[in-house]
Amino acid sequence: MSFSPFSFPCFQPRTFARGDEQSPSGVAELVEEMPLAISINGIAHAVMMVTPNHLDAFVVGLACSEGIIEDINDVRDIEIETTKLQANINSMAIDLIISPRRFAQYKQKQHAHVGATGCGICGVESLSQAIPTLPMLAPCAPIKTSILASLKSHLSTYQTLGNKTGAVHAALLIAPNGNPILCMEDIGRHNALDKIIGYALQQRLDLHDHSVLMTSRCSTELVQKAVRVGLSRLIHLASPSTLAVSLAQHYGLNLIHLPKQDVPRVFAASTQLKGTHHE
What we know:
29% of the residues lie in helices and 28% in strands. The protein is of the alpha/beta class. Strands 9-8-10-11-12-13 form a six-stranded mixed beta sheet, with helices on one face. It has a four-stranded mixed beta sheet with strand order 4-3-6-5. A hairpin with a 7-residue loop joins strand 12 and strand 13 (265-266). Helix 1 crosses helix 6, helix 6 runs parallel beside helix 7 and helix 7 runs parallel beside helix 8. The N and C termini lie far apart (40 Å).
């Protein structure tokens, strides 16, 4: 397996004992989990637990989905360092260097965050930050039910890391014609989507009329990330939350749930499925 300068081995073998003392011990391939410290032009931003592949796409995608940058032209450089923590734990630090204009806006927001405390919202300082106002999505073409059925049945073929280790989320980017483009995997579902977003920015790919199929449930944060970057559809193998549905309906995001034993469930009001009899 080859790795880019921003990817590292994503699994390691670990021995284990079986519950039955008469059975021999075994070896399991476990997914790698690393702490990643992210800074913006030298200012500490966040520490995330990640699977250490496609880290350049992840950091770029995270910055875009959080409104720090708007497109890839806002990125000037990405600097990465690896370090060791206590207990010989591997860790990484990435400094995302952005344009002076975007950095000035970032510092202004950071200063505002420091002055707005004590409201009781976990991780943010106000309700307007928790539920920001985002641009409405443009209408997109309907997706065929036959495409959804095919993606559901073949998703595992694109999960190279998941097939080896299990316990990892996947986000599959799908072209307007229904063909898979690539699959990103991570221990965090938000991370997997951010990697897709970062890849799209790096490739200068307009996400209108594209879909992302995810192995997780759909949460509010995933809807907000998708809307912010102009993604037309989120398709999930687990049911969404009520707030995720409300936000998807408001912004025109096509939100689809693929149950294990039932037909697709369309939650966003703007969505229509194109059945095989109309193809």
